[in-house]
Predict the structure.
Amino acid sequence: MAKDNKVINRRNFLRDGLWGGCLAALGVVAGASARKNRKNDMVWQIDPYKCIACDICATHCVLEDSAVKCIQQYDICGYCDFCPGYFELGASVLDTGAENELCPTGAIKRTFIEDPYYEYDIDESLCIGCAKCVKGCAAFGNGSIYLQVRHDRCLNCNECSIAVACPSGAFKRVPADEPYLLKKVDHV
Amino acid sequence: MRPFRNILIGMAISLILSGVTSGMERFPPPDFVETDHVIPSPTSPGPRQDVYEYIDAAVLLAALGLASYLVLKKRSRRAIFALSVFSLLYFGFWRKGCVCSIGAIQNIVFSIFDRDYAVPIVVLVFFLLPLVFTLFFGRTFCAAVCPLGAIQDMVLSRPVSVPGWLESGLRLFAYVYLAAAVLFAATGSAFVICRYDPFISIFRLSGSINMLILGGCMLLIGVFVGRPYCRFICPYGVILRQLSRLSKWRVTITPDECIQCRLCEDSCPFGAIRKPTTQWPAQEYHVAKKRLAFLLLLLPVLVFLGGWAGSSLKSVTSRAHETVRLAEQIYVEETGKTEEITDSSTAFRATGQEIKKLYEQASNIRARFELGGWILGGFIGLVIGLKLIGLSVWRQRTDYEADRASCLACGRCFNYCPREHLRLKKTKEVADKW
């Protein structure tokens, strides 16, 4: 450990001046950033109105099992018997047979409530975020099923790999205290 | 079968209407009459709590303080190594490489140029703390706190020395990388440091195959060439180098005086030990003086050339921005040069925005890339010029010294110094006495 000898000569004077300048510059950076002040972290989220339901979320996440999953916003859902997010378009019978289901992993659970209403729940442990159901629900239904980044899984990378690949610019940073972008309910 | 037919007709109509994938509410909400079913609401698990972020910042502060103490006061390579193992486990494998000081450069730059983005306080702390510590104690962050440095330090077992000219040449890449990172972050196009971080997929134990191969290759090179990322690539290291030149305290090979025994000469795997120099040979003096004058005149030329090169790359660099890419795709489609339609152009057309506006945005962004190219290319030219000038100035040294900029403060050289052994023995004797 060596400390500069404190002889005042041109070299030391210049060095000390530069040193102070650098410290001041760091202070300016700190001050300027603190003026914009954001105490909270920012997290990634999908704007459901921009999402085009391609299958990039399923494959581009750095996690082996994507952090993006489908969610069901029940208060928009029509509880249809023939759910276009649940059934294949040419489904022969409206039952839980794999050949009739749209979801490749069978992650949507169909429960009878009362005639003619069925409730559809998403089993997140099975959902891979491929957005097949999102496409179906948006094209023929109410659009109540859509993709969201699930923050219990998301690593919050500084640069989200899905955001890089997203073709519609639907990924954006949102404040961590409001981490979901849910659709507005139009009816009522 | 009537309701079913109605649904089919409804479906047919909505198929025609469905331009937007986000959907519209076609069916009314259910009115449950037989059961009193309550409509549930979707779950929304929250992100990692902020308190953990502050813990990260506190761990960083503690690690930096401890590293500085170990390097400058305790002078123990073993303890420095132990701390770097901890940092690798905590910041690397536990925090999975994010949040990181190197990547924080981009957040800072992005927040300066983007009005809507503000740097979270913890990211700011991660950016500033190592810089402040470097101004006081040298590159102790590199020594034992940075997980990227730590993982490379672990694998370094057969160090070969890199010749000086190659070292300086390769180091230029770090400056170019820094300039590129700043350019892409300032224009809001990409965070390249994060995208091409070679070790992050190792920390996460997952990632794309290309990044895993890159990380593996880096570690393989790192077995022979000490810390290749830190020396030749790391953009944060570029800033640390310059601040370290000014640091108040610094690493010394010997604890007190250099006896010029030459034992430490080859101990540094990073080529950071400078030998004592003799007097400048008289016959070379005149040549060197002329060369220095020439290089000083060359400096503005190099700055200009760099700026010109940087700005003329604008059509390539601006393609990193998604708006420019989209505008180019739309242009190719509009002029009928391609039949292929991409997802992004379909998504753009679905929004119904004007194509003219998109072109306008894209040309604005390209203009920013041109200006940025001038500034950052000029910066690269300046770096090259200053390096050449630095090479032709004779530095007088009487002792073996650790280079202020290049020294990573790892402490490997301590044990080579006989004075260090004397110090240790002395302290041991004193300890025994007490």
Residues 355-391 of chain B form the longest helix (37 residues). The beta strands of chain B are 249-250, 273-274, 401-402. DSSP finds 19 helices and three strands in chain B. Residues 13-20 of chain B have pLDDT under 50 and may be disordered.
